[in-house]
């Protein structure tokens, strides 16, 4: 290719990653980007400051109409999109706010995915269509007050009573908890750990919102209390026994985070880039100084490497070749680098970087939660360490 035939350098796509997408991919991306620009960005700073999203149920129905809920699942009203298209949607949603992407991830990649993969046909037909439409919101109960990274030690238990199951226990840090019409709850049984599909109007079920959060403030986070909740035999997920069930759901959700974190990073980078070309100090734009350019260059390198990694993992998922260790690779790298991009962007914006007039501090505080949930950075390091050495350092 001659120099004259080379495409124009795009500061927002320096590697030309848009070439990796086909027309359907671009259509998905642009649809979600437009929706987020119209329905989230004008309001999200206020939602974050107030710590609530008043119209969250309406947003869920709109996301359902877009096909964004349970997006890569097939049948029962789900869109049947590719893994890459789902990833692009996560990136665009988190570029608006991590809380909105969390709503979608928990709905589709945790609650719906568990029912779709492990549920009976009766459970699928009952729950998946209204969940895909956003008419019913779901949550996923695994983490407990005393057991986060070690779910095998969970205390929530289910016992048989005649033909019924009776669940007792507590789950915490549950996204969508008090919004949910259905909860997928994991509990100990005499047979091993099992999943249960729990209607939230069942007697003995309660959800209490967690307040005073300084992260994911545009997201509902709750504690679930199950006090002798009685369920029929058919409420148990028949397709899996043991930790393999919830961990496979977490892997599916982590995949979305690999993309989503780069959305938050992109929003911060673009904010810093625009600011650097318009903010003047010492008689010229601060983007003309070497230290600022070095920061922008380093951020661009890590941002687009992260997007390229997400694309690679998405293609592997679409080919049925993606391993859990590779998802850990992606989450560890992309969330860590997204946080660094947010922090560096904040330094370019100076004091303005802490203002909600700009997205940077909001994304940075949100990513502190993303760093921890769906597996802490340390746990993903140990997953990779075991894969690399063959030695288990967890115990």
Automatic annotation (TrEMBL):
GO terms for molecular function: fatty-acyl-CoA binding; flavin adenine dinucleotide binding; glutaryl-CoA dehydrogenase activity. Residues 139-229 form the Acyl-CoA oxidase/dehydrogenase middle domain. Residues 242-388 form the Acyl-CoA dehydrogenase/oxidase C-terminal domain. It comes from the Bacteria. Its cofactor is FAD. Keywords: FAD, Flavoprotein, Oxidoreductase, Transit peptide. One of its GO terms (biological process) is fatty acid beta-oxidation using acyl-CoA dehydrogenase. Residues 23-135 form the Acyl-CoA dehydrogenase/oxidase N-terminal domain. Gene3D superfamilies: Acyl-CoA dehydrogenase/oxidase, N-terminal domain (1.10.540.10), Butyryl-CoA Dehydrogenase, subunit A, domain 2 (2.40.110.10), Butyryl-CoA Dehydrogenase, subunit A, domain 3 (1.20.140.10). Belongs to the acyl-CoA dehydrogenase family. PANTHER family: GLUTARYL-COA DEHYDROGENASE, MITOCHONDRIAL. This is Acyl-CoA dehydrogenase. The lineage of its organism: Bacteria, Bacillati, Actinomycetota, Actinomycetes, Kitasatosporales.
